[in-house]
Design a protein that fits this description.
Chains B, D: Belongs to the HypE family. Chains B, D: This is Hydrogenase expression/formation protein HypE. Chains B, D: Pfam families: AIRS, AIRS_C. Chains B, D: InterPro entries: HypE, PurM-like_C_dom, PurM-like_C_sf, PurM-like_N, PurM-like_N_sf. The complex is a heterohexamer, with two copies of chain A (374 residues), two copies of chain B (333 residues) and two copies of chain C (77 residues). Chain A has 16 helices and eleven strands. Chain A has 374 residues and is of the alpha/beta class. Chain A has a domain of 146 residues: HypD, alpha/beta domain 2 (Rossmann fold, 3-Layer(aba) Sandwich), CATH 3.40.50. Chain A starts with 9 loop residues before the first helix and ends in a 13-residue tail after the last helix. In chain B, α2 packs parallel to α5 and α5 packs antiparallel against α8. With 333 residues, chain B is α+β, with helices and mostly antiparallel strands. In chain C, strands 3-2-1-4-5 form a five-stranded antiparallel sheet, with no helix packed on it. Chain C is built from one helix and five strands, in the order βββββα. The termini of chain C are far apart. The chains are: A alpha/beta (374), B alpha+beta (333), C alpha+beta (77). The complex binds iron/sulfur cluster (2 copies) and magnesium ion (10 copies). The site of one magnesium ion has 5 residues of chain E, from β3.
């Protein structure tokens, strides 16, 4: 057995769960722990963890699903680009079904060679190389985990002298949005499950503010069942001990300083910028944009978006923003379960099985809440 | 001529030649060789059963099989899981201009060999050629005709709480093998498709016990979707146990790399069986006796009437399994 | 946020490419984002690229911590 | 959603929805609605006959019909010309990503209406979706099942010198209408496809006379190729008279412009009949009684045993008619 | 009834045939009349005329089938162009099945978007316009009938500023090859059926040398049954009267001076050149080439044919050349009917139903002979 | 050499294009190669282009010649 397999050993996991259950019952009152990473959300859902925890525990789903946090207008811009003659939009498959005003990328893909799903942005560069007559626009979404790979794609395109590769920029960074959440007066979080793969790039440092400035326990966690249980246990221990530290429970992947080489490449290509989050609005320094010397790879500079976004007329009536902010429950949305279903989603929260609305619909116990300051 | 051209599909001389040299050569039998607009079939005994499927797999050759084998297995299996003894197949070919004739020969040979193994005859055929860029090399439709003996009555069987869910082997091998053979993902493995004929196995299952409630083959959409269909159609709750699901390590590995859940990957040589609890052991034993059933396992049971499928996770949690919704594509998260 | 899986490096193809293996599946991996990778190393694969090397001793320590905790649970019961 | 996407073919929820909303909606019947892997058929009386054809026509909507109507007519007709009473069709759809769902609806509606007119039920179906650029909008396979009554025995009829060649109407209308609707040629005409169900007509023909030796429908390859097949298979010489061949003026006009011989253009609603000389008149009269046989004409006769087809030209010369060899494409000379 | 229909009236045609048969029997000895136009050959074959004529009459098939007279190396060059990345060969469909050394254009068409059949060279220009990244090479074959249309395509491409349209030149002219045939010591022709559609462009003048210099009766003929019978009768009359004139029996289409406008366009773009004919070798002034000012549209100037034709290694063993020259009968070719059939032709004479070999194979009475001087 | 068919001009679209008709089939025809074409004219269509106008009186003369000759045949028999 590969040593990594041991992280999945069922026997230890059951023991860890038992331990966790014991600890939670020791604590009186509600405890809210937020996982900010979509992949954590997915893992938690796949192991059916939420319902195994005592009823006084809520695992809140944070803004870590790149699909859910990307604003409506971005999708519309991507679609309008795909519709242009000579433009091919390259994207991670996750985006295909997200509805824009009148279409989805999946529908545009069906109309012609307008949308291509890729496994990696490096594949998008290859497509641009092989189709010199097409402008290949890669939908640059995701967080620090993906940003270095996208940066690499820019360096690759530059080395190949490609003038037909560009990014539609919406890369985001985690710590600023986490701080925004902490500052939110309606939101009351007892601890954070920090995103392990983001941390594998940026290290533990950037999360220290949680403990130091806001007195919140936080654990950088991996994604195996054991990792998650262990991390929750570490948070619980801190809560019980009324202690606030940022613990690295994923040291096999997360170095204190992250991955210096990846960070260097990322910083060579990108710089911080304000970014707009669905349901949260604009957050300072929460996004990445191409540095001036790479602006030739910005789709913004190659196309006139005014005309594109001018098209945004019809809204789908989706309440995803409010759901994400906790102003509404999914069931409060009048489209929920009737006009909006996983097969015909009207909002991003219904797109993936782990989206807040989809999860709610299928009665997997959902205890997500996220209040906005507005 | 080494390549299929449009002239091979125009109804003229080249087409006749192609049919004689390849289709009749490999698949010829007394019925097919009537060569008329339609074929007369010998008298049959039992209740007639029919099914149709088109096969559009990409790539057309994959580890463990090819589109020809798949096209025969797929339709024979659909007859078999309905309790039928398969007798005849029709073979509709849609060839793309530019297909190498050697490839066509390999595929038709594979059709013929698999049909022979299944004991079915190709009763009628058709060949069309579509222009280059309007096909996928080759698409195949097979339509099957079989008979059900008087002793078999799957239609009226009632699925009840306590019935066991049994599968004849590991899940998702076919789907994973196909994904692994797609160049764009730059992966490789020793994984082969499970593509196989199920008619002997289903005959064995049905003769081993009167307690069989339902048989199907979890193809497109995988195990989760197949079970969901049963749950919906029969209004039952089905509960699977994650820990005993037979999934090959390569299928897990590929699922991990590409972000794809093996529960939604197709099998093309597995029987999924719902059997009365008290008969389950006998059924499992009978299945294990078959060379393609050695991996048989009970993977869950019927637990209620909620028209849904649940999975009890290794940790003891519950996941609701929805039918497949999206394309099976690698995801970012 | 981001699916990533650990794979074992079984071949270094050149400065930018290696072959990784996990559970009998081999995958071409871009290694530009990490330094000093060697055959036998485990790396974290995300979107076609290795984004970090795995630290094996740290992994063992974590496993040990798991076991300790699990034992706790056993004892407390 | 107005467009077919790959998700409509993945076996999951969207596909089920598509099937229910369109296929079952228009074509639903007791047999199709069994919704199992395969469909049980009621008991049949008579000798079973089967045939299969895939339809890849471009464009999918054409003057006088669409691919749905064509797919039903084509297979029903192949049963009918073999003397069978058509009972069931299976329906295999290969949809191309990007097909408008409204078009699919129109086509399936057309399938359903034509099937109703033919008195056949859609017994089983299948839907696949291929990526944009790997299909032709929609390809359809239909496989047919019919029965032949005890009083009909076309198989053993012997074609003899003197037998008459009869056709139920003008030739090449379908092929010409398809060509005329292809944009690249920049032509237009009021010509419509002759696409029609032949089962009533063939029943009438067979009941009108015991002297019917052979029936077929001159589809791909046209009249010349169909007759060539008969000549080869039955080892007879067939002689046509140019002067009495029914060819519409538009078909002649288009043939002239594009350099294409109407003898090689497909019909999709004509019966070609070989009848004993003494029965020819009765047969012709019976055919003319049918609304789709009003243009019936004797166009030639069997004149020997040389396995070839000749045409006596208006001038009294003789042309040997070979089966179609090339693609039907406009020529320079 | 449209007045043109009257040319097809069966009753008159039968009378004409009767008259012709009578005349032929009056004349003692063999009479050889050559039709030089492939469309005449086709029409004669379609009406089954050969066998209706008395046995002392031979209708010789001349070098008027553009397929049959185009040399082997041309096909190979066309195929090698089609095989090049970024090159699309546009051609009349007739050429698809003609075998080259290792392939046919039909096979190349099947491999990818390499060959496109067109109804008109003007369509090839449209294809070039719509596919700017592809070089569209039109196979410029045919005679004076087609040459003006091809010239028009060049003017069209020029007007559209296309730099990706070119011709692979093999256009030929009729009168020079007819003179070559007349001069052939082994060939003994009593009269010519002159090509009516070539004459519709070039007029009657260019055929006068037949009567004036070589004392041969010649009739410019149309293509309806009546046209052909009438023209043959006119030739017979002259033979009987031992008279040699060039008669225009197709005056509804053929003017004495042809079509001046078409001629002007043709001469604007093309100029005379030596041309190579299969079986006849090089004939001075029997071809057309682009004038210097249009050489930018010559495929010869865009591609290196030395490398392409260097590939011509295997010969198919076809005896078409000798068959065309009359040195061999089709049945003398060892491939005839066995390895070479209409479905699998090895030479151009087997490609079309009216090709010498194909016609021979199907026992339509073929009486073609054509001797070379070699 | 070259297939060509007579069509009747039923519409002049512009300087370069007309619509021709024959036996109920209409076809777009390029008319650049001929001069002074009018609706009602017959033109000879080859490879998408009108390559000559038809001379109707010459046609009638030819037909008359046919008939004369055909009559000859009748008489001589
Ligand atoms: S139910 Fe649908 S429309 Fe409503 S908030 Fe959720 S995703 Fe948006
Ligand atoms: S038989 Fe074929 S190979 Fe021989 S000369 Fe004729 S065309 Fe050429
Ligand atoms: Mg586009
Ligand atoms: Mg038929
Ligand atoms: Mg058929
Ligand atoms: Mg199947
Ligand atoms: Mg067929
Ligand atoms: Mg099935
Ligand atoms: Mg099926
Ligand atoms: Mg048919
Ligand atoms: Mg199916
Ligand atoms: Mg090419």
């Amino acid at each position: 057995m590969n040593y990594l397999e041991q992280f999945r050993a069922a026997k230890i996991n059951s023991k860890l769960l038992e331990k966790l259950q014991q600890e939670f019952t020791v604590v009186k009152g509600k405890i809210k722990i937020m996982e900010v990473c979509g992949t954590h959300t997915q893992a938690i859902s796949k192991i059916g963890l939420r319902e195994l925890l005592p009823s006084n525990v809520e695992l809140l789903t944070g803004p870590g699903c790149p699909i859910c946090v990307t604003p409506f207008s971005y999708i519309d811009t991507a679609i309008s680009l795909a519709q242009q003659e000579g433009v091919m939009v390259a994207t991670f498959a996750d985006f295909l079904k997200v509805p824009g005003s009148n279409s989805t990328l999946e529908l545009e893909q069906a109309q012609g060679p307008n949308v291509k799903t890729v496994y990696s942005p490096l594949d998008a560069v290859k497509i641009a190389e092989n189709n010199p007559e097409q402008e290949v626009v890669f939908l640059a979404v995701g967080f620090e985990t993906t940003a270095p790979v996208i940066a690499l794609s820019i360096l690759d395109a530059q080395k190949k002298n490609l003038t037909n590769y560009s990014l539609l920029q919406a890369l985001k960074t985690m710590p600023p949005v986490m701080e925004e959440l902490v500052l939110n007066q309606y939101l009351d979080i007892d601890g954070f499950l920090c995103p392990g793969h983001v941390a594998s790039i940026i290290g533990v440092e950037p999360f220290q503010f949680l403990a130091k400035e806001y007195d919140l326990p936080a654990v950088v966690a991996g994604f195996e069942v054991g990792d998650i249980l262990f991390a929750l246990e570490q948070i619980m221990e801190m809560i019980v001990r009324q202690e606030a530290k940022v613990v690295n429970a994923y040291p096999r992947v997360v170095e204190q300083k992250g991955n210096p080489k990846a960070l260097k490449i990322m910083e060579q290509v990108f710089t911080s910028t304000v970014s707009r989050w669905r349901g949260l609005g604009k957050i300072t320094n929460s996004g990445l944009e191409l540095r001036p010397e790479y602006q030739e790879f910005a789709a913004e500079n190659k196309f006139d978006f005014a005309s594109a976004t001018g098209k945004v007329a019809k809204q789908s009536g989706c309440s995803c923003g409010e759901v994400l902010m906790g102003i509404k429950k999914p069931t409060d949305c009048e489209l929920f379960g009737t006009k909006c279903t996983p097969s015909h989603p009207l909002g991003p929260c219904m797109v993936s099985q782990e989206g807040s609305c989809a999860a709610y619909l299928y009665k997997v116990s959902v205890k997500m809440k996220l209040y906005s300051k507005e | 001529m080494k390549t299929i051209t449009l002239a091979h599909g125009n109804g003229g001389e080249l087409m006749q030649e192609l049919i004689k040299d390849i289709i009749y050569y490999y698949c010829g039998n007394d019925i097919l060789l009537q060569q008329d607009d339609a074929a007369y079939l010998p008298e049959v005994e039992g209740e007639l059963v029919t099914t149709t499927d088109s096969f559009v797999v990409d790539p057309i050759f994959f580890p463990g099989g090819d589109i020809g084998k798949l096209a025969v297995c797929g339709t024979v299996n659909d007859l078999a899981v309905n309790g039928a003894h398969p007798l005849y197949l029709t073979l509709g070919l849609i060839l793309e201009e530019g297909l190498e004739i050697d490839k066509l020969k390999r595929i038709i040979k594979s059709v013929a060999e698999t049909a022979r193994k299944a004991g079915v005859k190709i009763a009628a055929g058709d060949t069309k050629v579509v222009p280059q860029g309007k096909g996928g090399g080759i698409y195949i439709n097979t339509t099957g005709l079989g008979v059900v003996g008087p002793d078999i009555n799957l239609q009226d069987a009632k699925i009840e709480t306590g019935d066991k869910i049994i599968i004849s082997g590991s899940i998702g091998d076919h789907g994973a093998a196909i994904l692994a053979s797609r160049e764009e993902f730059e992966v490789s493995s020793a994984l082969t498709s499970d593509c196989a004929l199920l008619n002997n196995l289903t005959a064995q299952i049905l003769s081993s016990s009167g307690g069989i409630k339902f048989l199907t083959d979890p193809t497109r959409g995988g195990l989760a979707t197949a079970l969901h269909e049963i749950a919906q159609q029969k209004q039952v709750t089905i509960n699977l146990e994650e820990e005993i699901l037979p999934i090959k390590k390569e299928v897990q590995g590929l699922g991990g790399i590409l972000g794809i859940d093996p529960l939604y990957l197709a099998s093309e040589g597995r029987v999924l069986c719902v059997a009365a609890a008290e008969e389950a052991e006998a059924v499992v034993n009978a299945m294990k006796d078959s060379p393609i059933g050695t991996g048989t396992a009970v993977i869950g049971e019927v637990t209620g009437d909620k028209s849904r499928v649940c999975l009890t996770t290794n940790l003891g949690g519950t996941r609701i399994l929805r039918p497949l919704q999206k394309q099976l594509l690698p995801r970012l998260c | 946020m981001c699916i990533a899986v650990p794979v074992k490096v079984i071949e270094i193809v050149n400065d930018t490419e290696a072959v990784g293996a996990v559970k009998g599946v081999r995958k071409t991996v871009n290694i530009t984002l990490i330094s000093e990778v060697e055959v036998g190393d485990y790396v974290l694969l995300h979107s076609g690229c290795a984004i970090q090397k795995l630290n094996q001793s740290a992994a063992q320590e974590t496993l040990a911590a798991f076991r300790d905790l699990a034992q706790d649970a056993g004892e407390e019961r």
